[in-house]
Write a structure and sequence with these properties.
It contains 16 helices and three strands. With 395 residues, the protein is mainly alpha-helical. It has one domain.
């Protein structure tokens, strides 16, 4: 008990700015999840904000637990955590629940869990362990190959579900961690070039067959070779062709842009966003993937800037924790968490304003969801653990 109380006292060394930004984002998320569905006739939808409060409380528990725990203990648990998440990713392919054409959820003790979410944090932990080995130099492809293998295994399993949006986060996250670990720029540049060529080939397979006069059947076969499902291909087509299927695949994108643009400087007011209230922005996506559209419509440009400031505070705090970390493991953990959060924030907001295809990625701490909420809070707690133990008095 004495040791437990001593560990709890370490919480006074947490970053106050990161704590406040996290709490404010949680409160904003709960308020606008409520706003996004409070007039719905569907009772389960109307109660989403209550469940969001429960997830926020559970997330705070994970936040404090990971902040108190010594991040250095992850060295001996990293491989077990990684292996456990891989088992969940395999299990979801066989016994997972299918929704909207994707098999991504497992029911565990009555709760729906999306294994791809904890897999992000597991990859951050195991890569920090691997790349943070003292005296290890990754200037040889033989050594870097083991790191890339750790990246490809979960990504391929997630693509099998299929969940392209979540898989997209793993690539920049791994790339930034390799850069932070000191992988030579020439090797990183070659990896980036291969990735860009791969993206170019996929886009070519989507658009060129139609341009070359291929039959619809041939176009479908070529698209299938890329691993893209029909709805993913449609989302890409809608992004590059604004007038493509505005009443179908392009509906959410169009209504989201209208919602964001109609907010003006100060917004229409809490629970007064017409795109949201009148149902033009579907209530099935407004509380999660398009929560930023609801916030932008009801709080306007100034409210949106406030969200950017809060996320910027978290990013700055994470980079500061990485800079002051006492070891390479702590630095890489912070870089991995910041890159994961930044990818989610950037991709989610970019898709709501029409700068990226619709991917279905949630907005951290704001979008409705349990698995992602707890994973994000645990990741933020890890950053706090690194920050706490960077203080000379507790190291």
């Amino acid at each position: 008990m004495r040791e437990f109380l001593r560990q709890l006292r370490l919480l006074r060394y947490m970053s106050v700015s990161m704590c406040l930004a996290t709490l404010l984002l949680l409160v904003v998320g709960i308020l606008f999840v409520y706003s996004s569905c409070y007039i719905s006739d569907d009772l389960p939808v109307r109660s989403l904000y209550k469940r969001q409060i429960l997830w926020a409380v559970a997330g705070m528990g994970a936040y404090l637990l990971f902040a108190v725990a010594d991040y250095r203990s992850l060295r001996r648990w990293s491989w077990w955590i990684y292996a456990g998440c891989l088992l969940l990713l395999v299990a979801v392919l066989f016994v997972g629940t299918t929704r909207e054409g994707a098999q991504r959820w497992l029911t565990i003790f009555g709760f729906d869990v999306q294994p791809a979410e904890p897999a992000k944090l597991a990859l951050i932990i195991v890569l920090s362990r691997r790349l943070g080995l003292p005296g290890m130099y990754y200037g040889e492809w033989r050594r870097l190959g083991s790191v890339l293998l750790l990246f490809f295994i979960p990504v391929l399993l997630i693509l099998k579900q299929p969940d392209l949006g979540t898989a997209m986060v793993f690539a920049p996250m791994t790339f930034i961690m390799m850069y932070g670990a000191g992988v030579p720029l020439r090797m990183l540049g070659l990896i980036a070039l291969v990735a860009l060529l791969g993206v170019g080939c996929v886009l070519g397979a989507v658009f060129l067959p139609e341009k070359l006069g291929a039959t619809p059947e041939a176009q479908a076969r070529i698209t299938a070779m890329t691993g893209l499902s029909d709805y993913q291909r449609n989302r890409i087509m809608v992004f590059f062709r604004a007038d493509e299927d505005p009443l179908g695949a392009g509906w959410n994108k169009l209504q989201s842009e209208i919602a964001v643009g109609s907010g003006g400087l100060w917004g229409k007011g809490f629970r007064k966003g017409t795109q949201n209230i009148l149902g033009f922005l579907p209530r099935t996506v407004a509380p999660n993937d398009f929560i930023y559209s609801v916030i932008a419509e009801e709080t306007g440009f100034m409210g949106s800037m406030g969200i950017f400031v809060l996320f910027g505070t978290l990013f700055f705090g994470g980079f500061r924790a990485a800079m002051t970390a006492r070891d390479k493991l702590g630095r890489l953990l912070c870089l991995g968490v910041v890159s994961m959060l930044f990818c989610h924030v950037f991709i989610n907001i970019a898709m709501t304003v029409g700068l990226m295809p619709i991917t279905g990625l949630p907005l951290p701490l704001l979008s409705y969801g349990g698995s992602f909420m707890i994973v994000v809070m645990a990741a933020l707690g890890l950053m706090q653990s690194v920050h706490i133990r960077s203080r000379r008095v507790v190291y």
